[in-house]
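Honest question from a wet-lab person: if I give you the sequences of every part of a complex, can you actually get the arrangement of the whole thing, not just the pieces? Trying it with mine:
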Amino acid sequence: QVRLLQSGAEVKKPGASVKVSCKASGYTFTSYYLHWVRQAPGQGLEWMGIINPTGGTTRFAQKFQGRVAMTRDTSASTVYMEVSSLNSDDTAVYYCARVRTELGPFDYWGQGTLVTVSS
Amino acid sequence: DIQMTQSPSSLSASVGDRVTITCRASQTIDSYLNWYQQKTGKAPKLLIYDASSLQGGVPSRFSGSGSGTDFTLTIGSLQPEDFATYYCQQSYSTPLTFGGGTKVEIK
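Yes, you can. This is the full assembly:
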């Protein structure tokens, strides 16, 4: 069955970086794009960006450009999302989500990774 | 950016009620509109894609309609497991954007 397994919760200090992983299984990794979406505590969903696992090309929401990187390891069927210069507003649950066509819909989601930014 | 506006932001309903949630886009998005259900502490789950197509495994009491800028999610007969927050999302262009959510609570 399709599964997206994310890495565990993180606690980081302001100014630090965090790298979250999303390991795919149950389907051909390079046949689906992967997106990252985050959700601050008690808030709605915010799209961050997309990575094409085939070529590694990425596209980001403007507010994250320059501060977020997305990479992939096709041999491990894993994508990574790194956020740098963390601040308290980055405290959120980060989700990876799969799409068949570039822009969606999101048919499978990871379980989420809580990133807490606190001094 | 395309703004997605959901209404109401919350509602109280009883088991068996028919529930309707609306979503309006700030510009036309054709039928590139998806609906998700999210329960507390869980990832969202796809219910409806392309405005009116039911995702596999989703009960038929869920239905979607609309095109252009105005869309509707209907739950035909609310069940206990349907109490959750519902989000619309446009997949017409980046940045992909979501509505603010509608929390469906027990009356």
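Two things worth pointing out. Residues 15 and 79 of chain B are 5 Å apart (CA to CA). The interface with chain A takes residues 32, 34, 36, 43-46, 49-50, 55, 87, 89, 91-101 of chain B (CB under 8 Å).
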